[in-house]
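Technical annex B. To support the medicinal chemistry partners, we prepared a structural model of the target in complex with flavin-adenine dinucleotide, based solely on the information shown next.
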Amino acid sequence: MAVAADKTALVIGAGIGGLAAAAALAPHFAAIEVLERDRLPEGAASRSGVPHGSQAHAFFLGAQYALCSLLPGFAEDLAASGAVPVDLGLGGVFDFPGIGEFPRRDFGLTFYSASRPLIEAVLRRRVAALANVRIVEGARVEALMTSPDGAAVTGVRHTRPGGGNAERHADLVIDAAGRNGTLSQAMLAETGREPLAETRIGMEIAYTTAIFAKPDAAQPAWQYAYVLAGPPVETRSALILPIEGGRWLATLVGRFGERPPADLAGFLEFARGLRNQVIYEALKNAVPEGRFTRFIVPGSAWRHFERLRAPPRGWLPLGDTICDFNPVYGQGMAIAAQEAAMLRRVLDESAGDLGALPMAFFEALAPIIAAAWSSSVRDLAFPETAGERPADFGERMRFGAALTLLALRDAEVHRLWMEVNQLVQPPTIFLAPEFRARLGAVMAEMAAARA
Ligand SMILES: Cc1cc2nc3c(=O)[nH]c(=O)nc-3n(C[C@H](O)[C@H](O)[C@H](O)COP(=O)(O)OP(=O)(O)OC[C@H]3O[C@@H](n4cnc5c(N)ncnc54)[C@H](O)[C@@H]3O)c2cc1C
Protein backbone atom coordinates (compact mmCIF):
# COMPACT_ATOMS: atom_id res chain seq x y z
CA MET A 1 0.00 0.00 0.00
CA ALA A 2 1.23 3.52 -0.80
CA VAL A 3 2.42 5.07 2.46
CA ALA A 4 2.38 8.68 1.25
CA ALA A 5 -0.22 8.49 -1.48
CA ASP A 6 -1.35 12.09 -0.93
CA LYS A 7 2.21 13.38 -1.12
CA THR A 8 4.50 14.59 -3.86
CA ALA A 9 8.21 14.19 -4.56
CA LEU A 10 10.84 15.95 -6.64
CA VAL A 11 13.95 14.27 -7.97
CA ILE A 12 16.86 16.41 -9.16
CA GLY A 13 18.63 14.83 -12.15
CA ALA A 14 17.50 12.31 -14.75
CA GLY A 15 20.72 10.28 -14.66
CA ILE A 16 20.78 6.64 -13.59
CA GLY A 17 20.38 7.55 -9.91
CA GLY A 18 17.52 10.03 -10.41
CA LEU A 19 15.58 7.73 -12.73
CA ALA A 20 16.02 4.75 -10.42
CA ALA A 21 14.91 6.92 -7.48
CA ALA A 22 11.76 7.97 -9.33
CA ALA A 23 10.95 4.30 -9.96
CA ALA A 24 11.51 3.56 -6.27
CA LEU A 25 9.17 6.37 -5.18
CA ALA A 26 6.40 5.62 -7.66
CA PRO A 27 4.28 3.27 -5.48
CA HIS A 28 4.54 5.64 -2.52
CA PHE A 29 3.79 9.12 -3.87
CA ALA A 30 0.87 10.62 -5.73
CA ALA A 31 3.10 12.54 -8.12
CA ILE A 32 6.83 12.59 -8.80
CA GLU A 33 8.63 15.13 -10.97
CA VAL A 34 12.18 14.53 -12.18
CA LEU A 35 13.87 17.86 -12.92
CA GLU A 36 16.66 17.64 -15.47
CA ARG A 37 18.80 20.53 -16.68
CA ASP A 38 19.38 18.98 -20.12
CA ARG A 39 17.06 18.67 -23.07
CA LEU A 40 16.85 14.91 -23.30
CA PRO A 41 17.48 12.99 -26.51
CA GLU A 42 14.83 10.72 -27.97
CA GLY A 43 17.04 7.64 -27.90
CA ALA A 44 20.56 6.63 -26.96
CA ALA A 45 22.63 9.76 -27.48
CA SER A 46 25.31 11.55 -25.48
CA ARG A 47 24.29 14.73 -23.70
CA SER A 48 26.16 17.56 -22.03
CA GLY A 49 24.79 16.97 -18.50
CA VAL A 50 26.52 13.58 -18.43
CA PRO A 51 29.93 14.45 -19.93
CA HIS A 52 31.32 11.05 -18.86
CA GLY A 53 28.55 9.20 -20.73
CA SER A 54 30.68 8.26 -23.74
CA GLN A 55 33.22 6.42 -21.54
CA ALA A 56 32.93 2.67 -20.90
CA HIS A 57 30.15 1.89 -18.44
CA ALA A 58 30.14 -1.75 -17.33
CA PHE A 59 26.59 -2.62 -16.31
CA PHE A 60 27.19 -4.92 -13.37
CA LEU A 61 24.86 -7.65 -12.18
CA GLY A 62 24.33 -5.50 -9.07
CA ALA A 63 22.82 -2.78 -11.29
CA GLN A 64 20.81 -5.26 -13.33
CA TYR A 65 19.24 -6.99 -10.34
CA ALA A 66 18.44 -3.74 -8.51
CA LEU A 67 16.82 -2.13 -11.57
CA CYS A 68 14.88 -5.32 -12.33
CA SER A 69 13.55 -5.29 -8.76
CA LEU A 70 12.22 -1.75 -9.33
CA LEU A 71 11.19 -2.18 -12.96
CA PRO A 72 10.48 -5.85 -13.68
CA GLY A 73 11.67 -6.90 -17.12
CA PHE A 74 14.26 -4.14 -17.35
CA ALA A 75 17.04 -6.55 -18.45
CA GLU A 76 14.84 -7.94 -21.22
CA ASP A 77 14.04 -4.39 -22.36
CA LEU A 78 17.74 -3.59 -22.45
CA ALA A 79 18.47 -6.72 -24.49
CA ALA A 80 15.59 -5.98 -26.86
CA SER A 81 17.07 -2.52 -27.42
CA GLY A 82 20.40 -3.93 -28.53
CA ALA A 83 22.41 -4.59 -25.34
CA VAL A 84 24.68 -7.61 -25.75
CA PRO A 85 24.20 -10.60 -23.41
CA VAL A 86 27.63 -11.58 -22.12
CA ASP A 87 28.61 -14.72 -20.27
CA LEU A 88 30.43 -13.38 -17.22
CA GLY A 89 32.59 -16.45 -16.61
CA LEU A 90 33.12 -17.85 -20.09
CA GLY A 91 32.93 -14.73 -22.22
CA GLY A 92 35.84 -12.62 -21.04
CA VAL A 93 39.58 -12.22 -20.93
CA PHE A 94 40.25 -10.88 -17.46
CA ASP A 95 43.92 -10.17 -16.85
CA PHE A 96 44.70 -9.50 -13.22
CA PRO A 97 48.04 -8.10 -11.97
CA GLY A 98 50.29 -10.77 -10.53
CA ILE A 99 47.98 -13.50 -11.82
CA GLY A 100 47.62 -13.11 -15.59
CA GLU A 101 44.50 -14.30 -17.40
CA PHE A 102 41.93 -15.95 -15.19
CA PRO A 103 40.63 -19.30 -16.42
CA ARG A 104 37.25 -19.01 -18.11
CA ARG A 105 34.66 -20.87 -16.09
CA ASP A 106 30.96 -21.44 -16.37
CA PHE A 107 29.17 -19.55 -13.59
CA GLY A 108 25.83 -19.44 -15.35
CA LEU A 109 25.79 -15.64 -15.01
CA THR A 110 24.85 -13.26 -17.83
CA PHE A 111 25.34 -9.52 -17.80
CA TYR A 112 24.18 -7.06 -20.46
CA SER A 113 26.68 -4.81 -22.12
CA ALA A 114 25.73 -1.52 -23.77
CA SER A 115 26.74 2.11 -24.06
CA ARG A 116 25.79 4.30 -21.12
CA PRO A 117 23.44 6.39 -23.35
CA LEU A 118 21.52 3.21 -24.26
CA ILE A 119 21.23 2.04 -20.64
CA GLU A 120 19.98 5.49 -19.66
CA ALA A 121 17.58 5.75 -22.63
CA VAL A 122 15.93 2.41 -21.79
CA LEU A 123 15.67 3.36 -18.12
CA ARG A 124 14.25 6.77 -19.04
CA ARG A 125 11.64 5.18 -21.29
CA ARG A 126 10.54 2.80 -18.52
CA VAL A 127 10.37 5.54 -15.89
CA ALA A 128 8.58 8.00 -18.19
CA ALA A 129 5.91 5.33 -18.74
CA LEU A 130 5.04 5.27 -15.02
CA ALA A 131 1.67 6.97 -14.66
CA ASN A 132 2.62 9.27 -11.76
CA VAL A 133 6.13 10.25 -12.92
CA ARG A 134 6.87 13.28 -15.11
CA ILE A 135 10.30 14.17 -16.42
CA VAL A 136 10.72 17.93 -16.76
CA GLU A 137 13.52 18.81 -19.19
CA GLY A 138 15.58 21.97 -19.27
CA ALA A 139 14.95 22.68 -15.57
CA ARG A 140 18.22 23.46 -13.79
CA VAL A 141 17.83 23.40 -10.03
CA GLU A 142 19.57 26.40 -8.48
CA ALA A 143 18.90 25.69 -4.81
CA LEU A 144 16.98 23.58 -2.32
CA MET A 145 14.40 25.56 -0.34
CA THR A 146 13.96 24.99 3.37
CA SER A 147 11.45 25.83 6.13
CA PRO A 148 12.23 29.02 8.13
CA ASP A 149 13.69 26.96 11.00
CA GLY A 150 15.82 24.91 8.59
CA ALA A 151 14.37 21.65 9.89
CA ALA A 152 12.86 20.60 6.57
CA VAL A 153 13.50 20.85 2.85
CA THR A 154 10.32 22.11 1.23
CA GLY A 155 11.14 22.25 -2.48
CA VAL A 156 13.54 23.64 -5.05
CA ARG A 157 14.17 26.79 -7.04
CA HIS A 158 14.97 26.15 -10.69
CA THR A 159 15.22 27.80 -14.05
CA ARG A 160 12.17 27.31 -16.24
CA PRO A 161 12.41 25.21 -19.38
CA GLY A 162 11.37 28.26 -21.45
CA GLY A 163 13.44 30.81 -19.43
CA GLY A 164 12.97 32.57 -16.08
CA ASN A 165 12.81 31.02 -12.61
CA ALA A 166 10.26 28.92 -10.79
CA GLU A 167 9.73 27.33 -7.40
CA ARG A 168 8.34 23.86 -6.82
CA HIS A 169 7.24 22.46 -3.49
CA ALA A 170 7.14 18.82 -2.47
CA ASP A 171 7.07 16.57 0.58
CA LEU A 172 10.31 14.90 -0.44
CA VAL A 173 13.25 16.14 -2.53
CA ILE A 174 15.87 13.65 -3.76
CA ASP A 175 19.18 15.16 -4.80
CA ALA A 176 20.53 12.92 -7.59
CA ALA A 177 22.37 15.72 -9.40
CA GLY A 178 25.62 13.76 -9.54
CA ARG A 179 29.26 14.23 -8.60
CA ASN A 180 30.19 16.78 -5.87
CA GLY A 181 26.82 17.03 -4.13
CA THR A 182 27.00 20.82 -4.24
CA LEU A 183 23.23 21.53 -4.00
CA SER A 184 22.83 19.51 -0.81
CA GLN A 185 26.05 20.83 0.68
CA ALA A 186 24.91 24.43 0.09
CA MET A 187 21.54 23.66 1.73
CA LEU A 188 23.27 22.13 4.78
CA ALA A 189 25.53 25.17 5.13
CA GLU A 190 22.65 27.64 4.75
CA THR A 191 20.67 25.90 7.47
CA GLY A 192 23.64 26.16 9.85
CA ARG A 193 24.53 22.48 9.92
CA GLU A 194 28.03 21.22 10.46
CA PRO A 195 30.29 20.91 7.39
CA LEU A 196 30.04 17.49 5.81
CA ALA A 197 32.86 15.07 6.62
CA GLU A 198 34.41 13.67 3.45
CA THR A 199 36.81 10.79 2.80
CA ARG A 200 38.92 11.27 -0.31
CA ILE A 201 41.25 9.00 -2.19
CA GLY A 202 43.16 11.27 -4.53
CA MET A 203 44.51 9.87 -7.78
CA GLU A 204 44.03 11.44 -11.19
CA ILE A 205 42.38 8.87 -13.45
CA ALA A 206 42.31 9.72 -17.16
CA TYR A 207 40.04 7.93 -19.62
CA THR A 208 40.18 7.91 -23.40
CA THR A 209 37.47 6.02 -25.24
CA ALA A 210 36.49 5.23 -28.81
CA ILE A 211 33.92 3.05 -30.51
CA PHE A 212 35.23 0.59 -33.09
CA ALA A 213 33.54 -1.42 -35.78
CA LYS A 214 34.56 -5.03 -35.20
CA PRO A 215 36.92 -6.19 -37.94
CA ASP A 216 35.29 -8.80 -40.18
CA ALA A 217 38.18 -11.23 -40.06
CA ALA A 218 39.44 -13.20 -37.08
CA GLN A 219 36.80 -12.48 -34.43
CA PRO A 220 38.41 -13.18 -31.06
CA ALA A 221 37.15 -16.01 -28.87
CA TRP A 222 35.96 -13.60 -26.20
CA GLN A 223 33.21 -11.02 -25.77
CA TYR A 224 34.95 -8.62 -23.41
CA ALA A 225 38.55 -8.03 -22.38
CA TYR A 226 39.85 -6.27 -19.28
CA VAL A 227 43.46 -5.67 -18.33
CA LEU A 228 43.64 -4.26 -14.83
CA ALA A 229 46.41 -1.99 -13.51
CA GLY A 230 48.71 -3.39 -10.84
CA PRO A 231 49.98 -1.26 -8.00
CA PRO A 232 52.50 -0.12 -6.96
CA VAL A 233 54.01 0.53 -10.42
CA GLU A 234 51.67 -0.56 -13.23
CA THR A 235 49.32 2.37 -13.69
CA ARG A 236 47.62 1.57 -17.01
CA SER A 237 44.47 -0.40 -17.61
CA ALA A 238 42.22 -1.05 -20.60
CA LEU A 239 38.84 -2.50 -21.41
CA ILE A 240 36.85 -3.57 -24.44
CA LEU A 241 33.11 -4.01 -24.03
CA PRO A 242 30.68 -5.15 -26.73
CA ILE A 243 27.89 -2.62 -27.27
CA GLU A 244 24.75 -2.27 -29.36
CA GLY A 245 25.14 -2.32 -33.12
CA GLY A 246 27.76 -5.10 -33.10
CA ARG A 247 30.48 -2.66 -32.05
CA TRP A 248 33.24 -2.48 -29.46
CA LEU A 249 33.68 0.30 -27.00
CA ALA A 250 37.37 0.51 -26.07
CA THR A 251 38.64 2.49 -23.12
CA LEU A 252 42.23 3.13 -22.04
CA VAL A 253 43.03 4.43 -18.58
CA GLY A 254 46.10 6.25 -17.30
CA ARG A 255 46.83 7.50 -13.81
CA PHE A 256 48.81 10.25 -12.08
CA GLY A 257 49.08 12.55 -15.07
CA GLU A 258 49.40 9.98 -17.84
CA ARG A 259 46.57 10.64 -20.32
CA PRO A 260 45.93 8.03 -23.00
CA PRO A 261 46.22 9.58 -26.46
CA ALA A 262 43.08 10.59 -28.35
CA ASP A 263 44.31 9.64 -31.83
CA LEU A 264 44.37 6.17 -33.39
CA ALA A 265 48.13 5.74 -33.61
CA GLY A 266 48.71 6.90 -30.02
CA PHE A 267 45.76 4.87 -28.75
CA LEU A 268 47.16 1.68 -30.28
CA GLU A 269 50.66 2.43 -29.02
CA PHE A 270 49.31 2.84 -25.47
CA ALA A 271 47.41 -0.47 -25.79
CA ARG A 272 50.58 -2.15 -27.02
CA GLY A 273 52.37 -1.03 -23.86
CA LEU A 274 50.02 -3.05 -21.64
CA ARG A 275 51.36 -6.26 -20.11
CA ASN A 276 48.70 -8.23 -22.03
CA GLN A 277 48.43 -7.65 -25.79
CA VAL A 278 44.79 -8.76 -26.07
CA ILE A 279 43.42 -5.21 -26.49
CA TYR A 280 46.09 -4.18 -28.99
CA GLU A 281 45.65 -7.35 -31.05
CA ALA A 282 41.88 -6.83 -31.20
CA LEU A 283 42.11 -3.17 -32.22
CA LYS A 284 45.09 -3.05 -34.55
CA ASN A 285 42.93 -3.75 -37.62
CA ALA A 286 39.68 -2.28 -36.31
CA VAL A 287 38.23 0.98 -37.60
CA PRO A 288 37.20 3.68 -35.10
CA GLU A 289 33.76 5.28 -35.48
CA GLY A 290 33.51 8.92 -34.55
CA ARG A 291 35.94 10.72 -32.31
CA PHE A 292 38.02 9.71 -29.32
CA THR A 293 36.64 11.23 -26.11
CA ARG A 294 38.42 11.96 -22.86
CA PHE A 295 37.36 12.29 -19.25
CA ILE A 296 39.41 12.86 -16.11
CA VAL A 297 38.38 12.23 -12.51
CA PRO A 298 40.35 13.30 -9.44
CA GLY A 299 39.77 10.04 -7.54
CA SER A 300 37.10 8.82 -5.18
CA ALA A 301 35.12 10.86 -2.63
CA TRP A 302 32.61 9.73 0.00
CA ARG A 303 30.53 12.50 1.48
CA HIS A 304 29.40 11.33 4.89
CA PHE A 305 25.77 12.46 4.97
CA GLU A 306 25.17 9.56 7.37
CA ARG A 307 27.15 11.41 10.06
CA LEU A 308 24.82 14.44 10.13
CA ARG A 309 23.39 14.78 13.62
CA ALA A 310 20.06 16.23 12.50
CA PRO A 311 19.44 15.86 8.75
CA PRO A 312 16.51 17.91 7.47
CA ARG A 313 13.16 16.25 6.87
CA GLY A 314 11.90 15.90 3.34
CA TRP A 315 15.30 15.41 1.71
CA LEU A 316 17.67 12.64 0.66
CA PRO A 317 20.84 12.54 -1.45
CA LEU A 318 21.39 9.55 -3.75
CA GLY A 319 23.97 8.20 -6.21
CA ASP A 320 27.10 10.18 -7.01
CA THR A 321 25.81 13.00 -4.79
CA ILE A 322 26.84 10.76 -1.88
CA CYS A 323 29.84 8.94 -3.25
CA ASP A 324 31.87 8.95 -6.39
CA PHE A 325 33.90 5.80 -6.73
CA ASN A 326 36.95 5.24 -8.88
CA PRO A 327 35.06 4.49 -12.13
CA VAL A 328 37.57 1.81 -13.10
CA TYR A 329 35.79 -0.56 -10.70
CA GLY A 330 32.50 -0.09 -12.61
CA GLN A 331 30.33 0.42 -9.53
CA GLY A 332 28.52 3.77 -9.78
CA MET A 333 25.37 2.72 -11.62
CA ALA A 334 25.01 -0.40 -9.47
CA ILE A 335 25.33 1.52 -6.23
CA ALA A 336 22.89 4.23 -7.38
CA ALA A 337 20.40 1.52 -8.38
CA GLN A 338 20.89 -0.39 -5.13
CA GLU A 339 20.41 2.80 -3.13
CA ALA A 340 17.14 3.38 -4.99
CA ALA A 341 16.04 -0.22 -4.31
CA MET A 342 16.91 0.34 -0.65
CA LEU A 343 14.89 3.57 -0.67
CA ARG A 344 11.87 1.58 -1.85
CA ARG A 345 12.39 -0.93 0.96
CA VAL A 346 12.80 1.77 3.62
CA LEU A 347 9.61 3.47 2.37
CA ASP A 348 7.81 0.12 2.44
CA GLU A 349 8.79 -0.23 6.09
CA SER A 350 8.42 3.39 7.19
CA ALA A 351 4.64 3.39 7.72
CA GLY A 352 4.43 6.86 6.20
CA ASP A 353 6.88 8.56 8.55
CA LEU A 354 8.91 10.81 6.25
CA GLY A 355 10.57 12.42 9.31
CA ALA A 356 12.38 9.20 10.13
CA LEU A 357 13.34 8.60 6.50
CA PRO A 358 16.83 10.20 6.29
CA MET A 359 18.25 8.34 9.31
CA ALA A 360 16.68 5.02 8.26
CA PHE A 361 17.95 5.46 4.69
CA PHE A 362 21.49 6.41 5.70
CA GLU A 363 21.69 3.49 8.11
CA ALA A 364 20.53 1.04 5.43
CA LEU A 365 22.97 2.51 2.90
CA ALA A 366 26.11 2.21 5.02
CA PRO A 367 26.94 -1.45 4.19
CA ILE A 368 26.14 -0.98 0.48
CA ILE A 369 28.53 1.95 0.15
CA ALA A 370 31.21 0.46 2.40
CA ALA A 371 31.31 -2.72 0.28
CA ALA A 372 31.95 -0.77 -2.91
CA TRP A 373 34.29 1.72 -1.26
CA SER A 374 36.65 -1.11 -0.25
CA SER A 375 37.67 -1.35 -3.94
CA SER A 376 38.63 2.32 -4.09
CA VAL A 377 40.70 1.81 -0.93
CA ARG A 378 42.94 -0.56 -2.93
CA ASP A 379 44.12 2.50 -4.89
CA LEU A 380 46.11 3.50 -1.81
CA ALA A 381 48.55 0.74 -2.79
CA PHE A 382 49.99 3.19 -5.34
CA PRO A 383 52.51 5.28 -3.37
CA GLU A 384 51.41 8.44 -5.25
CA THR A 385 47.78 8.11 -4.15
CA ALA A 386 46.67 10.75 -1.64
CA GLY A 387 44.60 9.61 1.31
CA GLU A 388 44.80 8.07 4.71
CA ARG A 389 45.92 4.44 4.70
CA PRO A 390 43.88 2.40 7.23
CA ALA A 391 45.98 1.02 10.10
CA ASP A 392 45.49 -2.53 8.78
CA PHE A 393 46.14 -1.60 5.14
CA GLY A 394 49.04 -4.05 4.65
CA GLU A 395 46.99 -6.90 6.10
CA ARG A 396 44.03 -6.01 3.83
CA MET A 397 46.26 -6.07 0.77
CA ARG A 398 47.73 -9.45 1.73
CA PHE A 399 44.22 -10.80 2.35
CA GLY A 400 43.12 -9.51 -1.08
CA ALA A 401 46.14 -11.07 -2.81
CA ALA A 402 45.47 -14.43 -1.11
CA LEU A 403 41.81 -14.25 -2.11
CA THR A 404 42.74 -13.67 -5.75
CA LEU A 405 45.10 -16.62 -5.71
CA LEU A 406 42.42 -18.83 -4.14
CA ALA A 407 39.94 -17.68 -6.80
CA LEU A 408 42.45 -18.67 -9.47
CA ARG A 409 42.77 -22.15 -7.98
CA ASP A 410 39.19 -22.85 -6.92
CA ALA A 411 36.22 -22.44 -9.28
CA GLU A 412 33.66 -21.93 -6.50
CA VAL A 413 35.74 -19.19 -4.83
CA HIS A 414 36.24 -17.67 -8.28
CA ARG A 415 32.46 -17.48 -8.79
CA LEU A 416 31.89 -15.88 -5.38
CA TRP A 417 34.74 -13.42 -5.96
CA MET A 418 33.20 -12.40 -9.30
CA GLU A 419 29.82 -11.97 -7.59
CA VAL A 420 31.42 -9.74 -4.97
CA ASN A 421 33.10 -7.70 -7.73
CA GLN A 422 29.73 -7.46 -9.51
CA LEU A 423 28.16 -6.19 -6.25
CA VAL A 424 25.68 -9.01 -5.79
CA GLN A 425 27.45 -10.50 -2.76
CA PRO A 426 29.00 -8.53 0.11
CA PRO A 427 32.79 -8.84 0.53
CA THR A 428 32.14 -9.92 4.13
CA ILE A 429 31.27 -13.44 2.89
CA PHE A 430 35.00 -14.07 2.81
CA LEU A 431 35.22 -13.39 6.54
CA ALA A 432 33.24 -16.57 7.25
CA PRO A 433 35.31 -19.08 9.29
CA GLU A 434 35.77 -21.59 6.45
CA PHE A 435 37.22 -18.91 4.16
CA ARG A 436 39.35 -17.35 6.89
CA ALA A 437 41.08 -20.67 7.50
CA ARG A 438 41.73 -21.28 3.80
CA LEU A 439 42.85 -17.71 3.18
CA GLY A 440 45.11 -17.84 6.24
CA ALA A 441 46.83 -20.88 4.75
CA VAL A 442 47.32 -19.11 1.40
CA MET A 443 48.66 -16.00 3.15
CA ALA A 444 51.18 -18.17 5.04
CA GLU A 445 52.19 -19.82 1.78
CA MET A 446 52.67 -16.41 0.11
CA ALA A 447 54.70 -15.12 3.08
CA ALA A 448 56.94 -18.21 2.90
CA ALA A 449 57.46 -17.63 -0.84
CA ARG A 450 58.46 -14.00 -0.18
CA ALA A 451 60.91 -14.94 2.62
C1 LIG B 1 34.61 8.05 -16.57
C2 LIG B 1 33.52 7.34 -15.83
C3 LIG B 1 33.31 5.98 -16.08
C4 LIG B 1 32.31 5.31 -15.37
N1 LIG B 1 32.16 3.97 -15.57
C5 LIG B 1 31.21 3.30 -14.90
C6 LIG B 1 31.03 1.91 -15.09
O1 LIG B 1 31.78 1.25 -15.80
N2 LIG B 1 29.99 1.31 -14.44
C7 LIG B 1 29.18 1.99 -13.57
O2 LIG B 1 28.26 1.39 -12.99
N3 LIG B 1 29.36 3.30 -13.34
C8 LIG B 1 30.34 3.98 -13.97
N4 LIG B 1 30.51 5.31 -13.75
C9 LIG B 1 29.69 5.98 -12.72
C10 LIG B 1 28.31 6.34 -13.22
O3 LIG B 1 28.38 7.20 -14.34
C11 LIG B 1 27.49 7.03 -12.11
O4 LIG B 1 27.91 6.61 -10.85
C12 LIG B 1 26.04 6.68 -12.21
O5 LIG B 1 25.57 7.08 -13.46
C13 LIG B 1 25.15 7.33 -11.14
O6 LIG B 1 25.20 8.66 -11.33
P1 LIG B 1 24.10 9.71 -10.89
O7 LIG B 1 22.79 9.41 -11.46
O8 LIG B 1 24.22 9.84 -9.41
O9 LIG B 1 24.73 11.01 -11.56
P2 LIG B 1 24.84 11.35 -13.10
O10 LIG B 1 24.87 10.18 -13.94
O11 LIG B 1 26.00 12.31 -13.19
O12 LIG B 1 23.50 12.13 -13.41
C14 LIG B 1 23.22 13.39 -12.83
C15 LIG B 1 22.09 14.03 -13.61
O13 LIG B 1 21.72 15.22 -12.93
C16 LIG B 1 21.60 16.27 -13.87
N5 LIG B 1 21.86 17.51 -13.13
C17 LIG B 1 23.02 17.91 -12.57
N6 LIG B 1 22.86 19.09 -11.94
C18 LIG B 1 21.55 19.43 -12.09
C19 LIG B 1 20.78 20.54 -11.66
N7 LIG B 1 21.31 21.53 -10.93
N8 LIG B 1 19.46 20.57 -12.00
C20 LIG B 1 18.89 19.58 -12.75
N9 LIG B 1 19.60 18.52 -13.20
C21 LIG B 1 20.92 18.43 -12.86
C22 LIG B 1 22.64 15.94 -14.92
O14 LIG B 1 22.40 16.60 -16.15
C23 LIG B 1 22.48 14.43 -15.02
O15 LIG B 1 21.45 14.08 -15.90
C24 LIG B 1 31.52 6.01 -14.42
C25 LIG B 1 31.74 7.36 -14.17
C26 LIG B 1 32.74 8.01 -14.86
C27 LIG B 1 32.99 9.45 -14.53
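Notes passed to the chemistry partners:
The pocket of flavin-adenine dinucleotide is lined by residues 12-18, 35-38, 49-50, 52, 55-58, 60, 63, 140-141, 176-179, 207, 295, 297, 319-320, 327, 330-334, 336 (CB under 6 Å).
Residues 357-377 form the longest helix (21 residues).
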